[in-house]
Design goal:
206 residues; mainly alpha; single chain; Plant heme peroxidase family profile domain-containing protein; 11 helices; heme binding
């Protein structure tokens, strides 16, 4: 089974980081300029610089890679339409998490797991690279969040969980493609972008 090494994972994360950093002066220009190579004239080699620092950050703290993935997810997905937000709420529910006695969806999963030694021991050993361990853990029912459990309740979703658990190479390819596709979502019309005070909300909402 092919594994995604830190350097390989960093390539995808660097592309995401650079796309998040690019700030175009108008929506029309943003859709054109938010791409790899945007800084080739004003800051040659910036991709290599960002790649180096992202790799360094991941080496120092394995959570940095996941944090960057979460950042781009929130940056691109924060403006979901109300109907879809309602659908997510209906599917995931608002009750306590089924794995632990309290609702801990907003807590760090590692901190939560550390409070439950028997839970932590069952997890596949953390590695230095992204891989398909999540799907193995999900099938073994040792996941943390209610939304994770929901993947096992629908036939199509369960099929994908099993597929990715069995085929790490497929997950590597699909994850890379999905991250690049997500990073290409355009900014809202007439928006120049902004630096958020809280990553999960646009500033004018708070």
């Amino acid at each position: 089974m092919m594994k995604v090494s830190v350097p390989a994972a960093v390539l995808a994360l660097c592309a995401a980081a650079l796309l998040l950093l690019a700030q175009a002066p108008s929506a029309a220009e943003a859709s054109h300029h938010l791409k790899l190579g945007y800084y080739k004239e004003t800051c040659p080699g910036v991709e290599k610089i960002v790649k180096y620092h992202v790799a360094k950050a991941i080496k120092a703290n394995r959570g940095a890679g996941a944090a960057l993935v979460r950042l781009i997810f929130h940056d691109c997905f924060v403006r979901i339409v109300p109907a879809y937000r309602n659908l997510l709420s209906a599917k995931c529910g608002a009750g306590p998490d089924p794995v632990v006695p309290n609702n801990v969806r907003d807590e760090d999963p590692r901190a939560v797991a550390a409070s439950f030694p028997s839970f932590l021991k069952k997890l596949r050993k953390a590695r230095e690279f992204l891989d398909n361990s999540y799907y193995h853990n999900n099938l073994a029912r040792i996941v943390t969040f209610n939304s994770d459990w929901q993947l096992l309740t629908e036939k199509e979703a369960l099929g994908h969980v099993k597929e990715y658990a069995e085929n790490g190479t497929l997950w590597d390819e699909d994850f890379s493609d999905a991250l690049v596709k997500l990073s290409k979502l355009p900014m809202p019309p007439h928006s120049k972008g902004e630096i958020r005070k809280t990553c999960r909300w646009v500033n004018h909402d708070h």
